[in-house]
TrEMBL record:
Residues 86-189 form the Pirin C-terminal domain. It comes from freshwater metagenome. Signal peptide: none annotated. Pfam families: Pirin_C. PANTHER family: PIRIN (PTHR13903:SF8), PIRIN-RELATED (PTHR13903). This is Unannotated protein.
Length: 219
């Protein structure tokens, strides 16, 4: 899943694990996933006259006129009214970026600074490893004197109870217990490999195997 690209030196990895819940009506839908290959994810790049760069990686949720790749059909992100967004923002030192407002004041928008000097929002400075909930339905101006990388997570709450244990998320304790029973009985349909931790050949290029057996490789 995470190959050792360098065989004789460290392989640093920066990873965000983002969980997106499903409403109860969709929790038992057929499993599926969508691969968002890095080179296919839309990016907005703006470079000023001094060569300073501002970039928005549009992972989910449109940013201005730039739309993301399609999410799985049953994902909460596939509902336009959910206003789900995942954006990676990069600001070179001395640049600024305006975040567009959401349609609904109920949509929650959180910004997390994970690298660099931080950003200024009005009179508030957010340093590295700092997060803040923003007023989503207003235009937000970010300024960075020293440069920053930020993650924006956004969405309208589903508004249903959440019960979670391990990787399982349901709406009540009964549903959670049944999920454990289903997993213990079938492994959610069966594990397709002969071992619990399969290892692929070192020279195997990127690929994904979908539930219907289709093998997807980036161009």
């Amino acid at each position: 899943m995470l190959p050792l690209r360098n065989q004789s030196q460290p392989n640093p990895l920066e990873l965000f694990q983002i969980w997106l819940n499903l409403p109860a009506v969709d929790k038992m839908c057929d499993p599926s996933f969508t691969m968002l290959w890095a080179e296919q994810v839309p990016k907005i790049r703006r470079i000023d006259t001094d060569g300073r760069r501002v970039e928005v990686v549009v992972i989910a949720g449109a940013f201005d006129d730039t739309s993301p790749l399609n999410p799985p059909s049953n994902s909460w992100a596939s509902k336009d009214s959910a206003e789900v967004a995942v954006w990676h923002l990069h600001l070179d030192p001395g640049t600024s970026l305006e975040l567009p407002p959401t349609r609904s004041a109920e949509t929650i928008r959180t910004l997390y600074v994970f690298d660099g000097d931080g950003v200024q929002i009005d009179e508030t400075h957010l340093g590295c490893d700092t997060g803040s909930v923003l007023r989503s339905n207003d235009i937000t101006m970010l300024q960075s004197s020293g440069g920053a990388d930020c993650l924006v997570l956004q969405g309208r709450p589903i508004g249903e109870p959440v019960v979670q244990q391990g990787p399982f998320v349901m709406n009540d304790e009964a549903g959670l217990r049944q999920t454990f029973i289903d997993y213990q009985r079938t492994g959610f349909g069966g594990w397709p490999w002969p071992v619990d931790g399969p290892v692929h050949d070192a020279d195997r290029k990127r690929f994904a195997v979908h539930p219907n057996g289709f093998v997807e490789e980036p161009n």
